Amino acid sequence: MSIDSDRSAPVTVEPVVVGTGPVAPQDVVRVARDGAAVRLSDESLAAMGESRRRIEALAADPKPVYGVSTGFGALAVRHIPLELRKQLQRSLIRSHAAGSGAEVEREVVRALMLLRLSTLATGRTGVRPVVAQTYAALLSAGITPVVYEYGSLGCSGDLAPLAHVALAVLGEGAVRDADGALLPAAEALAAAGIAPVELAEKEGLALINGTDGMLGMLVLACHDLRNLLRLADVTAAMSVEGLLGTDKVFAADLQALRPQPGQAIAAANMTRLLADSAIVASHATPDCTVVQDAYSLRCAPQVAGGARDTLAHAERVAGYELASAVDNPVVTLDGRVESNGNFHGAPVAYVLDFLAIVVADVASISERRTDRFLDKARNHGLPPFLADDPGVDSGHMIAQYTQAAIVSELKRLAAPASVDSIPSSAMQEDHVSMGWSAARKLRRSIDGLTRVLAIEALTAARALDLRAPLTPAPATAAVRDVLRAHVDGPGADRYLAPEIDAAVRLAASGALLAGAESVIGPLG
């Protein structure tokens, strides 16, 4: 259920500079989706050089240091002699590149690479500058290592996904070039003039010991969901209008009685969207017999607002993680090399699961509004199923079935991954986060919400047309007009799947939201 799982973008935007501080979320999006090139700051190169000198000193010390002169995980009890340490790092990458399943999307791999590079650039991992520079070179050349769906438990880092990336840096495994062609890594690196890396002490471990995959997917999901929640306010307003609901319940003083910040934003958006609607004004009279609208209309700000507040929490967690240097062992600011548990993905896994829950609920209330349009007992005078000739025509009957099927799946995807744990590495790694799995299902959930909102917009636009000669609000009319440039208005039954697909593309691209904002300005 993927709208665009293989986004390809040329390297045409300003490069992202990676320093010792956190990468901005918008820069993650630029690198992942827009193909932005990457370069390292002088400060980061100096910091890496300094910490590398500390690692090299420890490598010469006879005292065992985890990841420098020992094996890994449950095999850390073995001291590795000097002559085998390069082989140790190379073997780590080869053995851990054990993923399986479908290829992971290009944008996810690029986000993962940028975030691992960001941690390397802090100087807290002890890798040589050349290793980080090679990651930046691959990103800038548009070379994307092939990473597979399964292989991360979200603890000790996203091990298999990160190992497949590191394997490509060694000149092994498979990659896709900037045009999407599948090539051996050695061939693609040679064509781009990039020399493969020969890993030294600790470097293999530093390349795979982070939460970068799940964090990259969280950052991308937050970006998408913030726009989709604005679109949810747009489609809800269209439905309130088309179902002859009232906008009075969205008044600011009523929202202030329950000072949830997201709720206030959603209600204010809906008030602006419905301003100057002749349809709303037509029944805002003393003789109107409707006392209260259904929950799916009246409580839209409460649901979308709660989703906004959950998203805000997820964005805070992502911000903390973007400011982190996740590795084990880590080189501290005072030069110590210490083992730690910062690679555990629990904080990220939790919010990924939280977002899957709110996505399912926002989609659920959207589907309920669509269903009301189709029931002549509840749609206040519209034809059954919005059909042109009910009985001969079925109108949008099965569009709601499609919504319902998606919503049902979203409810299943809302079951949290982070409550599960399967011990690994001979019980050394006996509690894991499953954050990668939480991120993978959230991507599917975001896709589903996009489709559900698109179908609500399509159905609500048809209803607004059927209310003629009454006219909708300027903002909702603009959204309807964006749809009408691609999908015809009411009439006899037509092949519906292409119309739904067109609406989905308009929702995913931001065109529907832009239609409303072209009239009333940016929504909150």
From TrEMBL:
Pathway: Amino-acid degradation; L-histidine degradation into L-glutamate; N-formimidoyl-L-glutamate from L-histidine: step 1/3. Its EC number is 4.3.1.3. PROSITE patterns: PAL_HISTIDASE. It is found in: Cytoplasm. It comes from the Bacteria. Its main location: cytoplasm. Keywords: Histidine metabolism, Lyase. It is an enzyme of class 4 (lyase). Pfam families: Lyase_aromatic. It catalyses: L-histidine = trans-urocanate + NH4(+). Belongs to the PAL/histidase family. This is Histidine ammonia-lyase.
